[in-house]
Specification:
Layout lengths: L2 H12 L25 H10 L2 H5 L18 H19 L3 H10 L8 H11 L6 H16 L6 H8 L10 H24 L10 H7 L3 H16 L9 H19 L8 H17 L6 H8 L4 H10 L3 H12 L8
Length: 335
């Protein structure tokens, strides 16, 4: 018997009846031979981990643009924290950890440079709009591997697409990632905001601290335990009404006091202007795009969509470097 088949048997034997079994996946857009070692979701996890878009996350902004300090979160560290929270919940509920991890590692691949400021700017520039969750799926379906995509399973792509507020994944594992994303960013953004002197622990309303805890560790412990306790034996991922409401209120507080705070977001307008000028430059000088994107144009993709694809894939520092190359005066040299 193949190793993969043994692992699939273990899933059938051990996992919850509400878990998504690897052998029951709806499959990939393009059929391919099964791996002899890895079930399909583990294979997807590995593909995401090794792709270029994943590596670029380490140089993309989470909340604080160009922070001075090595301990602020990046889009990559956020992704890893989401993955760890989600795996903890999945393991306790006997759900499919491989699927949870694949969704978590891939959910933010489509984020632009300069965080949500970049996303909002590209959304205003692209004719068909721009949303990072949709871009994450576009990356794994079309842009990665020189236009071949990663050919991931339907369940992983569904979880990546539907991880945002207002959307709902089709699997229990996707629902875990959706909540784990919020748990991660609310808590690590508080930690970063305190580090950046934008917020103090005492500045968080007492009613939220009384329910959730007064430190990052306490809040994570409360939220994760609450999800596990309230989801055990259920075909849903849920929280108690009191804790869920406190988390939503804390999230609203963060939007008002951190995400829109002029200290944390003081460079956003410059970042938006930078991306806007790059967008118009590449639209006017389309031959400056790499071969993959020119080929996409030849195959019928819209011009502004392809330009957005290229800019969205940039890291913060690469976008700044291209801006300097195109728009900053060069020193005059005499040979």
């Amino acid at each position: 018997m193949l190793i993969r088949e043994n692992m699939e048997l273990l899933e059938r034997t051990y996992l919850s009846p509400f878990a998504t079994l690897s052998e029951n996946s709806k499959g990939r857009d393009r059929e391919e031979p099964q791996c002899d070692i890895r079930p399909v979701f583990q294979r997807d996890r590995d593909r995401i981990l090794h792709c270029k878009s994943f590596r670029r996350l380490k140089h993309k902004t989470q909340v604080f643009l160009t922070p001075r300090g090595d301990h602020y979160r990046t889009r990559l560290t956020h992704t890893l924290e989401v993955s760890q929270n989600a795996r903890t919940i999945a393991k306790a509920l006997r759900l499919n950890e491989d699927l949870v991890e694949a969704i978590a590692l891939g959910h933010d691949l489509g984020h632009t440079p300069f965080g949500h400021a970049g996303e909002h700017m590209l959304n205003s520039l692209c004719e068909d709009g721009f949303k990072h969750n949709e871009q994450s799926v576009r990356i794994v379906e079309i842009l990665e591997k020189d236009g071949k995509g990663l050919n991931l399973t339907w369940e992983v792509r569904d979880g990546m697409l539907n991880h945002q507020t207002g959307l709902m994944p089709s699997t229990m594992e996707g629902k875990i990632v959706r909540l784990s994303d919020k748990i991660a960013y609310i808590n690590h953004d508080i930690d970063d905001a305190i580090r950046g002197k934008v917020l103090s622990e005492e500045g968080i309303p007492a009613e939220y601290r009384e329910i959730l805890g007064s430190t990052t560790r306490q809040r994570l412990n409360t939220l994760i335990h609450n999800i596990i306790t309230n989801s055990l034996g259920k075909n849903d991922i849920c929280m108690s009404e009191e804790v869920e409401q406190a988390m939503k209120s804390l999230r609203k507080f963060m939007f008002q006091n951190v995400y829109q705070n002029p200290v944390a977001k003081g460079e956003e307008e410059r970042a938006k202007d930078l991306l806007s000028r790059l967008f118009y430059y590449y639209n006017k000088n389309i031959d400056c795009l790499p071969e993959l994107y020119l080929r996409m144009l030849e195959e019928g993709e819209k011009r502004d969509r392809v330009v957005c694809d290229y800019i969205a894939g940039m890291t913060d520092r690469y976008a700044i470097a291209k801006f300097e190359e195109f728009f900053m005066p060069k020193a005059w040299q005499v040979n």
